[in-house]
Amino acid sequence: MTAPHTGHAAPAAAPAALTLVSHALCPYVQRVAIVLHEKGLAFERRTIDLACKPDWFLAISPLGKTPVLQVRGQSLFESAVICEYLDEVAMPVLHPQDPLQRARHRAWMEFGSAVLNTIGAFYAAPDEATLQARAQDLRSRFVQIEEALGQRSAPGPYFAGVHFGMVDAVFGPVFRYFDVIDTLPGMDDLALWQGLPLVQQWRAALAARPSVQQAVGADYVEGLRAFLRARGSALSRRMQAVAA
């Protein structure tokens, strides 16, 4: 477990009786699970089908989305809010002490959400031309990340250097998509990672982190493959052509 950043005020006592309402593939659920694991907090997982949302779930999730964290009878929704709450109540602290750097990290968390939207547009692209265009969008995002990593004030495997932080928790699920996508037909031709050594190193460090590994179930890879095959997209057709 990574030591907390020095100088932070000690958080209040850790919450008890945590239930993470989840969807098996949701990257936003994963980021909360990663934070829970990093902080050593025991929690229960309750998985739902977002295609058939139960009434009890809609009653606790005003936006009808996962994750929801249930804490002593209270329900928190929106992953960023949940992660901020957990950072206030349990060690180790995953945000930097300095207010400016903390704000910068929060901005990069939002950037991670934008990358997830770009990934969604990529795997939903209806035709090959759109798929190629969305691949270039992804590549542009990764180039921006490479530049940000090059500006780190200290060397290390994570976004801020030595310490694992909230930005790392956000990007673990981002890069996990590509453990599957990179194996699909024709992905090498898109050159998503070419000339991006710092991104590649960061991706590898996150993939090796126990909290990132534990954020999904054993059936995640097959579940994601099935999801991508069923999209009716250009990527789906590539997968089906190989299967045939």
Could you explain the architecture of this structure?
This protein has 244 residues and is an alpha+beta fold. It has eleven helices and four strands, in the order βαβαββααααααααα. The chain has helices spanning 27-38, 55-60, 79-89, 99-123, 128-150, 166-181, 187-190, 197-207, 210-213, 220-229, 234-243, and strands at 18-22, 43-47, 68-71, 74-77. It has a four-stranded mixed beta sheet with strand order 2-1-3-4, covered by helices on one side.
SSE arrangement:
Elements: E1 18-22, H1 27-38, E2 43-47, H2 55-60, E3 68-71, E4 74-77, H3 79-89, H4 99-123, H5 128-150, H6 166-181, H7 187-190, H8 197-207, H9 210-213, H10 220-229, H11 234-243
Parallel strand pairs: 1-2
Antiparallel strand pairs: 1-3, 3-4
Helix pairs in contact: 1-3, 1-6, 4-5, 4-6
